[in-house]
Amino acid sequence: SLFEPGVDGMIDGQTLVWAGFDGTDTEIYRFNGSTITPITDNQTSDLTPLISGQNIIWASYDGNDNEIFFYNGSTVTQLTNNKEDDGYYQISGANVVWQGYDGNDNEIFFYDGSTVNQLTNNQADDLLPQISGSNVVWSAYDGNDTELFFYNGSTVTQLTQNTLEDTNPQIEGQNIVWEQSGGKDSEIFFYNGVTTTRLTNNQVRDDQVQISGNQAAWLQHDGNDTEIFFYNGSTVTQLTQNDTDDLDFQLLGNTLVWSGYDGKDFEIFFYDGSTTTQITNNAKNDIYPQLSDSRIAWLGYNGTNFNVFFYDGTQIHAVTNTNQDQSSLRLSGSNLAWAGIGGADQGEDREIFFANLVSPGLFGFQDQFGFTVSDGVGGNVAGVFGVAIAEVGPVSAAPPIGIGEEENGIGNEVANEVNNGIANEVANEVNSGIADEVDSGLSIEVDSESMLG
Questions:
Q1: How far apart are CA 185 and CA 190, in angstroms?
Q2: Is 56 within 8 Å of 71 (Cβ atoms)?
Q3: Would you say the pTM of this structure is higher than 0.85?
């Protein structure tokens, strides 16, 4: 994915969190749609925040190892305090799960909003937990292969017991999907809280499975290209059937969006539960679609750079029009966030942008301008150096607001995949000219042509 949690942040509704450099180390910041608030202010590096509602978790390096911290909207709580690394944490509401090393192997730990409980205590590596509410699923290596375990809020159950590799579990509620491989191919399985159902049975590779409610979707590699399959809770349907790659799908309920190659470039497609519609039809690559309700956002190539586009169910709107690449796109409801290189610093760093598309049918920008503001000494106390502002036509369609910048060292370049004209490969990555981020020196600058166009 182009989106890197902890580098450019995570969004939930109008709330965006990210790690930002304060001149000394990285701190955690929250934007609630109007105000930026520092969540941490210390001498350690706080990184990789995740958000669920008002709740935030992140990792903090204490000089010896990584510890996990939790913020419930008012109070910060340190969840771990040991001499071993705690990592791969996930959050759902006030519930948190992570894997922690006990000196011998990795175990699974669960925080229910008040108490930390150790879910496993064995001689096997328990890894990569996923969480939904109080339900948790994870992988465990038993010495021969990888099996799956499920915690329903009170009891741990072993979901698989075989000689095959059961991996990549995804969970929503008590519904779980995963991939099972035996060396030649991989198949998709679904657990509904009671019964396990095998969704595929073929000689090809089925993987990258996603879940939403009791519905699932995945990619199938048929030997020539990748196709998309959908399970609606009772029936499996092949959504694409062509000779080109269909990639980067996102599932939400019984709807899906994806990027498909049309023989010349990648276009955006949308499935509404019954019908597939091609959203874009042009000569440039449209990639990495995001889906929320009936809204779709994606990155579109204009011949030079990738910009942000938005579909409101009726029309396509250009959210940005810039000569610098935009990336790390995230959509949550009517709220859109992304990272962009631009502004008066001439592309020397990345800034975070936010737009509230409250009336998407009226969305449009007019008379745009932008500026970057800093304190001239390497950043202010909030670690937020730039604000880009655009005047818009309809009052109800809020403009993108630049709410933060990424300092050199906070993250590497985002992988810009799928170069113009390159197709038929699952991971077509391109260097679109994004340079390593560097500290601009920071001064007060005004630019009459913002990164928005």
A1: 17
A2: yes
A3: no
